[in-house]
Structure formats: structure tokens, C-alpha cells
Amino acid sequence: MRERLIANLNRLLEALAPHCEVPEHENPAAAQSASAASLLPLAHAIPKDKFTDVFRSGAVLKSRNALGLEPKEVDQMLGRVDDVCFYIGSAIFPGGDVGLLFSPQISEICPADTVATPFDSGGCVRKYPLNSESTDRIQMIRDHEMPYPENRDYLSGLLLSYFTCPEDYLNNQPYTCPTCSHTLTDPHGFATSCPDLFVRQHEVRIPGEVSLFSHLAAIIIESTLASRSDVKGHLEDLVSQGTALRTFKNTGAAMDGFSPLHERCRQYIVTELLN
Amino acid sequence: MEHMYPIGDLTIIGAMEVPVSTPPYQPQVLTPVFQLKATEEVLYPPYHLHDDCVVSAPTTRTLAQRDFAELVEENSALALPTPLPAQKSHLLWFDDKGQINYERRSTVQQRLAYLARTHLLRAEEHLQTQQWHDARDSAATAYSADPTKVDALVIQAVAEKNLGLSGQMAITTELAIELISRDSFSQLVHTHPANDASHRCRVFRQSATYRSMSIEVAAMI
Description:
The complex is a heterodimer of chains A (275) and B (221).
Chain A: H1 2-15, H2 29-39, E1 42-46, H3 48-56, E2 60-61, H4 73-78, E3 83-88, E4 98-102, E5 115-117, H5 121-126, H6 137-144, E6 146-147, H7 151-162, H8 166-170, E7 203-207, E8 210-211, E9 216-222, H9 223-226, H10 229-240, E10 244-248, H11 260-274
Parallel strand pairs in A: 9-10
Antiparallel strand pairs in A: 1-3, 1-4, 2-8, 3-7, 4-9, 5-6, 5-7
Chain B: E1 4-6, E2 10-15, E3 28-30, E4 32-36, E5 42-43, E6 47-49, E7 53-56, E8 62-63, H1 65-73, E9 78-85, E10 90-94, E11 100-104, H2 105-128, H3 132-145, H4 150-163, H5 166-176, H6 182-190, H7 193-220
Antiparallel strand pairs in B: 1-7, 2-4, 2-9, 3-10, 4-5, 5-8, 6-7, 10-11
Helix pairs in contact in B: 2-3, 2-4, 3-4, 4-5, 4-6
């Protein structure tokens, strides 16, 4: 399996041609992109009512299958029903009240069959519009599966040639040439018009369970949830092992483009991890 | 691209927050998940909720109902037992009894302010009688109803200080510094009258124990 993932990675890296050629030594963004790609956390969002459940079951994140839930269609189609899914970057839709940001070093304990794709696989199977609707969507996912953490090399290439700056990746900006600002065709085959938050977010699937006591860099939590005495005890345990605690307020109504959780995660990543 | 949906074209089928289902219930305004009456598509946040319409953001998603059912199943969204017709100037909210309500915005604001005051008073009473755990819970409810109430966090920190929960008190301080400086908050906590009451009570208990021991010793002699 790993050979297939590495072959995919090499093929995708080779195909990653910049729209405007800029010699790497003349491009200060190269180092910035490589650094951002190596520093962006793995994010997982959980809803309010599940937070204490996670601790009740040993402070581990589990797959839907392990939780006794019906596996998602995409998990069944890919034959990966025991994965816990993350996005590289900010915790994102379906929202939730708690964002868990794991450091990239979690790769040290990831099983060999951990895979990454440069888009959300569930959305690919179900709904994202494609340039060619005759494309086999499952095959499309398989063709873009890469090993983790080596996939960060590919992310680095995308950040350099397809985004004006790394923050644009976090902000779900369209693929844009950083040199001439031309809107670029999606290199993975999705329609350029697709506005979905996940279509450009890199996904990582880790099989098995993921402990909150390994490499959890930060917990981003809605402030009224954090004020509960039953929640504070768990937060105390995480903070005592070096996890950063950041809070946000849920405005509960009108929102400008992103959920408050996503926005607070993005702010933490930009100000405290990337700068 | 932004799109405007008149409020009369929408039904509320759920919320994007799933309030904690065990007491103490935390009052809060909920973010509605709408369904378009005409197409049955489900409209998720982010969006701009105006009095008489909902304006989608560029990243707003309209999905099939099965996606919503999946979110509800994994506890990432809440389904209302009975869908509600969306109404002008109304808010969906969760009260301190664990009930979901849909009422006029001004009414919701008044009720949340009332709950914040009531639970804050209750928390103060618990502090006076040194029911530290109850004081924390009431203060958490007050803070949820009005997250600008720094008094609620002061009460929590005072209770945690008296319970010897320094780690949790540090978390309360992190919440407070969004509202007030760290030094000011620390001063409010350390000068709170309940600390004196607690101190007096400890001294009284110690002296009572001493007197009791003295009486026992005297009796033995």
C-alpha cells in the first residue's frame, strides 16, 4: 500500500507546475510555504455534548465504527471504516464547540496505513462538482491518496504555487497564482466554482484510536462550555500536560463566512504557530 | 455567491449547537438550521440572520436532508422534535430547564438577562453558605446566559480557590481575561467577602474543635 501512496505523491508533485515560473532562489515565499506546510496542525472538531463522552471513553478519539455508529458511505466505499479523520489546518464544519489541534509530530505514532488526500474525501464522493462528471469518484480519491506526513511536501508545493500566502489556504481562498493573481484550475479535478469549505482542505485519516494525551498542541473551546465544572476537570488534565487552552464565544446568530470555532482556530494557528 | 432567503420561505428543523443534555443546563441562543420550504434543501450556517431574511455567505452550504440526518446521528447537530415555521425577529434558544424555545428577539434577550441575574444571586447565596460546588454550577449557568458577566467567573474562582482547585481556577482566569485584566480579576477574587467568611468559619471550626478537645481532656482528668 505504501508504495502506491508514494507513487501517487511523486506523480502529484511532478504535475504541480506553477502558473508563473519564479526561480526558487528568487522566491522568498518558498521557505514560508515549506515552513507553514510543516507546522500546520491536524484539526478535529467535536460537538459540545460529546466532549465529556470522549473522556469517559478514555480520552481517545474513535472512528464512527468504534463508537457503534453506522460508518459513512465514503468509509465503506474506501474500505476504511476504522479511521479517525482530521484536516490539516483549522477545525471546520460541521462546526462544533471544541477544536482539537494536534501537532504535526503526531506522525511519530501514526500507523503506516495513515493516508492523506488534498481534499475532503466524503465531499468528493457525494457532492463536489467535478470538471468531468464521468470521473469515478472513488478512483479519484485513491489516485490522490498520499502517505502522511510526506504529503506535507505536496501541501508545501500547493501553498507556494496555488495560494497567495499560507493564510489563504486556512481562509479557503480559491486557487490563485501568487505571481499574477490569475484564478487557477483545481489541480485535482473539481470544478473551480465549488465554494465548499472542504474542497481545498487536506484530509488525514488515522486508523484506530487517537489519544488526547499524545501531541495535542491546543484545545480551542467555547467559553461557556469551558466554565462547566465537569468540563474544567478534563481541561485541567490537558493543560497540565502542556496543551494550550484558547476560548471563543459563540455568537449564536449571524456569522461572517466561518464558524466562530473555525475563526478562533485560524487565529491561533496564524498568530501562535506560523508567526 | 450570496443569496437572500425571505424568512417566510424557511422552516427551522434544528440547530447547529447540541446543548449539554445533563444538568446544570446552560441557557444559550442557538444557531438555526433552516429548510427551504420549496425544495426541502437544508440551509446551514454560516449566514447572516436578519429580522426578515437570511442572507447566505459565500461558504454557506445547502445540502440534502440526509446530510442533516447524519449530523444529528453523530450529535453534531440538533433536530427539533417538530419543525417550526421561521418568523421575523425571532431567536431559537435553550433555557435553564433544558427546553428549546423560539421567541421574539427582545423577549429572549430579557429572559436571558433575567436568568443571568437570578443564577448569579443564587451563586452568591451558595457562596455565603460555602456550598462551593453549587456556587460554581449556578455561576456557570449565569455566565452561559450572559457571557459578559465577570461576576459569575469571580464566584467560580472564589469557589475553586476554597475547594483547592488551583488548576481549574487558572482556567476560570483564562476565561475572565477576555473580559477584564488578569490583575483586576485576581484582585476581585482575592478580596471577595466569601473568602473572609470562609476564613472566619475555618477559625471558628478550629477553635470549636480545640474547645471540644479541651472539654474531652478535662473530662479525662
